[in-house]
Design brief:
This protein is α+β, with helices and mostly antiparallel strands. The protein is built from seven helices and twelve strands. One of its GO terms (molecular function) is DNA binding.
């Protein structure tokens, strides 16, 4: 029997304090966070490391390009976009969701290379980086988990380079939708029914396409019976075909 359908979560509830303190045991990010797999004693030490839980209002910036790295941020709930400056202008390079770690791009240089902007009211757990490095020495499992997350970040950036460098427009859109569905599924939500928290302009920046192309692609996917769209609510009505288009096994129709 199929599991009950869960639709994608909404914004963090209103009325939360800007600064608060909680425990990892209260978190619902499941097996996605940095503390995943630690024994109870190690998890308690990690919990004490968390400086504070901060609410970031929609549109506010958590950190900016050029700021020194002082903390990493585990996204407890909500949605962000990562904006990176470049020679041709700013580009969106990611859309972190609950359970992901923000600020990893600054670990090598000690300086943030991008802006992290909340797409909806969000809550992050602040992890002072100097204290986190000291904890790595005492908890090897935490250090290994951190390396795995760094590896995932490298793979994600390589995936984006492949997306922009070698895929046609329809394949980029199919890949984006399939990736979004997989990300929601990893958090216990429906892989075929979710909200696009970002604007079409942001999607275009991420995929290397104009906002007009994004609108045409969504319209074309709708006509092909692949999706239905209601404002920012998306239903993948033919996820198998979308996955085939993303992988290149299903031919993409020329744009008109």
């Amino acid at each position: 029997m199929n599991a009950p359908l869960r639709v994608s979560p909404g914004p963090a509830p209103p009325g939360l304090l800007t600064v608060m303190k909680g425990q990892c045991g209260d978190c619902n990010t499941g097996g996605l966070c940095l503390s995943t797999g630690l024994d109870s004693g190690s998890k308690m030490r990690f919990d004490r490391l968390v400086g504070q839980h901060r609410r970031i209002a929609a549109g506010d910036t958590l950190y900016r390009t050029g700021q020194p790295l002082r903390s990493l941020y585990a996204l407890r709930c909500g949605f962000f976009k990562i904006r990176r400056p470049g020679p041709a202008g700013d580009q969106i390079t990611g859309f972190p969701m609950a359970g992901e770690l923000l600020g990893l791009e600054a670990v090598g240089t000690g300086i943030h290379q991008s802006d992290a902007i909340a797409l909806e009211d969000s809550i992050v757990c602040e992890l002072p980086f100097a204290a986190l490095e000291r904890l790595f020495e005492d908890i090897p499992g935490l250090h290994r988990r951190f390396y795995r997350l760094m590896s995932c970040e490298i793979n994600r950036e390589q995936h984006l380079m492949l997306l922009l460098g070698h895929m046609r427009a329809e394949q980029r859109m199919a890949t984006f939708l399939a990736d979004m569905g997989a990300a929601y599924a990893a958090r216990g939500y429906s892989p075929a029914q979710f909200q696009l928290r970002m604007s079409r302009e942001d999607i275009g920046s991420y995929l290397g396409l104009t906002i007009e192309s994004i609108s045409r692609l969504l319209g074309r996917f709708t006509k092909l019976g692949l999706i239905t769209v209601d404002k920012r609510a998306v239903v993948l009505t033919d996820p198998q075909r979308i996955a085939e288009m993303a992988s290149g096994f299903s031919p993409c129709s020329p744009m008109v």
